[in-house]
Structures are given as structure tokens and as C-alpha cells.
Amino acid sequence: MTTTTVQTDTQLASRLRLAVMRLARILRQKAQDQITPSQLSALVSVERDGPVTLGELAALESVQPPTMTRIVVALEEQGLVLREADPADRRIARVHVTTAGRKLLERNRSRKTAYLASRMRGLSAEELEVLERAAGLLERMTADER
Fold first, then answer.
1. Cβ(43)–Cβ(10) under 8 Å?
2. What domains lie within the chain, and their CATH numbers?
3. Which ranges constitute the DSSP H helices of the chain?
4. What is the C-alpha separation between 61 and 143, in angstroms, rounded?
5. What is the rounded CA–CA span in Å between residue 54 and residue 85?
6. pLDDT at 31
7. Percent of the chain scoring above 90 in pLDDT
């Protein structure tokens, strides 16, 4: 790989990083729910991987257990998750998503998808094909991350 190629790859990586960050910020704003990004991330993890213990959820979210406890308490206060004793070991509490939590996630996803779909309507067929290929590449690049 030449110096020019490395520099070009670095420049492309920088542009991609900035675009992804902007898009993530815009999508967070479009969600318009009274929930913090940390709470939303935890709620998504509970929906995807739950029911989970606080320790498991902290590991999934890469935060310390006391931090996750605060996040889960806030989600409980909003009625978005529920902690219940594990039937196999009543000393262990497992976090579940409530119906209200599922509705919030669906509303959140719908708003974000609608925003992206509206922005994509302004693209040409050729641009949409490029975007479809780029989405596949991004999915492949992040497939082993979680």
C-alpha cells in the first residue's frame, strides 16, 4: 500500500466517521422520546438479549454494574423495564422489557426509519444502488461488533 493510498484511506475513514456521527445525532433527535442515549441502548439490549441480569446487561453495555443499576432504575421508573426474580434462583433478578418499553422502541425505530426514508426519496436510482452497497459494506464491517 502506498503512502497516497494510506492517506486516502485515512481521509475516507475520517469522512465516514463524521457522516456516521452526524447521522446518529440526527436520528437521536428524531426519536423525540424522554430517554437518554444510555437508557435507550440498555433498553435495546434488554429487548434483544433479555431477560438479563444487571451484571449481564452491564457487560453487554460495557459499563460498571453501579452505572447499569442507575440506568435500570430510571427505566423502571418510566415503566419501560421490570425486574423479576429468576424462577430457578430467586436471589437473581432478571430485567425484562415491558409493553411500554416495546412501544417506545417501536415508535423510536419508526420515526428514525421514516426520517431516513424521506431523505432517500431525494436520491437517484443510481445513488440508491450505491447506498445499498454501502449499507452492505457497513453491515459487514460491524458484523462482529456488538
1. no
2. 32-142 (1.10.10.10)
3. 3-31, 37-49, 54-61, 65-77, 99-120, 125-142
4. 17
5. 12
6. 77
7. 78
